[in-house]
Every structure is written in C-alpha cells, then in structure tokens.
Amino acid sequence: MKLRLHKFLAECGLGSRRKCEQLIADGYIQLNNETVTRLGIITDADKDIVSYKGKVLHTAALICWALNKPKGVICSCRKDNKYKRVIDLVPQNNGRIYPAGRLDVQSEGLIIVTNDGSLCDKITHPKYGITKEYLVWIDKPLNGNERQKIRNGIIIDNGAPVRAVIIDEKNFKSNMPRIRLTLNEGRNREIRKIFQKLSKKVIRLKRTRIGTVKLNNLKQGEYRKLTINEINDLNTGKNLK
To answer: Is the pTM of this model over 0.85?
Structure first.
C-alpha cells in the first residue's frame, strides 16, 4: 500500500498530518534506515521500513471513541498534575491516542478520541466542513442586532470572522437563555470569545454533535465506539441535514 510518508505516520498514531510533516522536517523519521527531511515522499507500507527515533512503525488498528467530556477534564495528551485528561477516561491499552479537537476545561460534551491522525485532521480543520453543534447558556438574552452579528461573523483574536448558525433559543425561569448553534471552526475558546464580544457571559457550554456523531444518551465520563457509518461520515465530511 503506497502512501505519502506523513499520512503513513499519521495512520501509525504519531499525530495529525501537519504534526507528522513537522516530524519529517525536523529529522525524526528514518526511511529504510536513512533520515529523511523532504516532504511529499511516497512510501510503500508493504516494503519500506519506516522508523521514528529508531523505532519501526506499523499502522495501528483504528480506534475511535465518542466520549462525553465532563467539566474539569482537559483535552490534552500532556500529563497534568491538576486535571484529568480525556484520554485517561478511555481504555489505556490502545497505544498512542489523542483527542480530535478540543473543549476547554470548563466546557463539556462530545469529544472524539482516536489514533487516526488523518481523521483527526478532517474533524478539526474547517476546510472539511464538519459542523459542530453546541448548547450555550448565557447570562443575558440576545437582541436582534446581536443575532445578526453572529450570523454575519464576529472577529476574534484579530483573525477572520467566526460565523455561527443559531438553530433555536429558549429562555428559562432563571432568566438564563440557552442557545443551540452550529459552527465548523476550531479556534481556542471561540464560542466564549464570540459572546464576550457581545458583552455576554457563557455560564455553561456543551457540545452535542460532531458531523453526524451525536452525544445522545452518553452520561458524563462515558464513552462508546464509533460505528463504521459514523467513521465513514467523518471521513467524507458528511453532516446532518
């Protein structure tokens, strides 16, 4: 099976394709016992010997978990003395796994944990168009002008405008509005920053869907394997209609 070297590395569980390109450029990868730093090399997984820091690599069995991340858990692979990691909540005998995207420590809901760097890239990069759905509780209601600003796009971190689609709004007796919205960006704390620009405070934030993968009845801290259909949908960029 012939693949570009960085894609092969991603399928071996070394990280996203972009990270694997960097590993090649930094001289960490050997092809048939010779260090390579040039990008775009094609490797034959059936014949070539590919190594990372001297360790021979093999493509790993695909792992994809859907996990309901509780508040207070981080989406990081780096050990942390203060917080538990999402990868600590799934079985530990799977080799290297990592979260596809992130939810900040105060947020909760659906996160996908996988060893497939290519799939991770498709979930996180906006060019693949995989939408994410969130429930957002804020301290004050939106007015019509603020809703329009969200639809048009709000600039955060001096980058391109972030656009969201508001699906519905509900007001509760506590006067804490709950908004259901979708977007396909993946910037750090972007939803909180959107509402901060509108002088609204996010009280609670929960992701309920990624593409066609739904949180459904998973309790906090629980996980399940993705179905073949769900994995295929993520690979092809399919969303719910």
So the answer is: no
